Amino acid sequence: MPLCVLEDVKKTYRIGEDEVEVLKGINLQVERGEFIAIMGPSGSGKTTLMNIIGCLDIPSSGRYILADKEVTHLSDDELSVLRNEHIGFVFQNFYLLPYATVLENVLLPTLYMEHSKNGLARKRAREILELVGLSDRAKFKPNQLSGGQQQRVAIARALINNPDLILADEPTGQLDSKTAGEIMDLLAKMNEQGKTVAVITHDAGTAAYARKTLRIRDGLIVD
Amino acid sequence: MERFAAILQQSILAVRAFKLRTFFCVVSVALGISSITIIVAATEGAFKKAFDMVALFGPDSLLVISGSEEARAIGQREKTLTLEDVQAVREAFPGAYVVAPSTAMPDTTIAYRDKKYQSIVVGSTSDFSRAWTWPVVEGADLTEDDVRGLRNVAILGSHVVDELFGDEDPVGKYIFVKGIPVQVVGVLSERGTTPTGQNMDNRLIMPITTVMRKMQNERKYVSVFRVRFVDQNKLIQYEEELRLLLRQRHRLAPDAPDSFRIISPKEIIKFLAALTGSLVVFLGIVGIISLVVAGFVLANLFLLSVRERTKEIGIRRSVGAKRSDIRLQFLGEAVTLTTLGGIIGFVSALGASRLLTLIAAFPIHFSWKAFVVGLLLSWFVGIAFGLQPASRAANLEPIEAIRT
Residues B352-362: pLDDT tens digits? Predict the structure, then answer.
């Protein structure tokens, strides 16, 4: 069974009187251990697709199965648990808490675990910071770090709960090309160590790191 | 439980991070809590004071004072009570275990060797100590023989001893009272000052017979007399009966005012309530208004904060926070702030009340009760005014929160 299965997923938004169909029937499978890129221009529906894959939103129709669980009809609380246990997000703007230290930011997902093991979490956070090359920055605040370092913290945060899927939305959008390359190398390294990685991007250079690329246009996968 | 603690830790982190918000919320809550704390402490202080005063006065006692209220108001000291009145009361009330008359001579010069001092000479019976629950701590009490024999003896208040004798032992020594030699037989225990600032230890007690005959040239009238009853529960009834008896004896017309005043413990409490009542009402209004204002300040700052921190909420939701986690965090922030405000309010109330007692001799008593009331109120404000912003934060959709 693949990690993610989307069957004829449609998503409609209501904007005032109008209904806008953003996703028009997506069929998609992501196998465990894959590194895929979903490419598309802005307005193509790739962000909506990411929201659904990341359990931030649910389809209007169709089915979505994540790690053998039917997501389609889950409640808000159940979606939160799924995100916590199965998904690690990496965002374009890093999205770190400005008032928390690097270590506290990395530990954030562990606060919301159903069965938390706080003592173990701190040890694990330090290991992961080591892995992303920031073990000497644990006490720093995000604004004391460079963009590339902040994105590494975000990746460490995405890894802390040992999720099935790393979901990165334009992870290099705010970075210069050299740093972007380093971040993509790091994601590739995670993939080599067994993590499933999905990157949503409009940038071909970023997508090139993936082993498989899907293109989305006007709410449909085109190849 | 671990999750609960972890989320409250996040609240504290935010309280420390958003310092300006913290400052305004804490100050406004502290203002309200401190005035309410003072009210609680003042009310308690008044009760305690009333209790102490009643205990000192004697909860089973009545004091009957010569002269009508009207005469007293214009500064006259007419004497209307007689020794026969006292005797009649003694006979009419078998339930009274002490009926003790006394007469007072204020501003009397007393002297020991070359030292002179102005004091109050109180003429009383051998019941004085029992009538006022005021023990003789050195030497001996007045005896019935002292009273019957018009002896020149006195027991001294501790202040008089300090003024005239210093460290010397006064018992057995002779002093001059209005030029008459008087032997000191005993010393009264220390009693302190009255709420009106009168030093109660500045007095000496002599047999009433000696004072009336030898110093006042008086055979009939006394200043006051005190009655103590075995059953203090019937005090109100006794007071009424005593009033009727005295009116009858003084042959007062039905519409004439009393020619005497009866002081009961009830009256002391009334006096104290009048003293503290207006300030308590004023502070109460100030306290409630400032707490409501504090609540709105809190609610507004929190709504602003929720709007400002939409992205933070989105981040937390995306890593798995439930709506209830977000609500708990923001409520936790509100309650942490109001608790801080409550504690600071309590501490500043301690300071402010010290000032109040200094400038107005206002009875204030702090206890755990004032603290608990303040703390509960601050929690109430935190929850009541924090709930709406916290719910707004919790109800943000994660995809919208993360996109802003």
Answer: 888 878 877 67
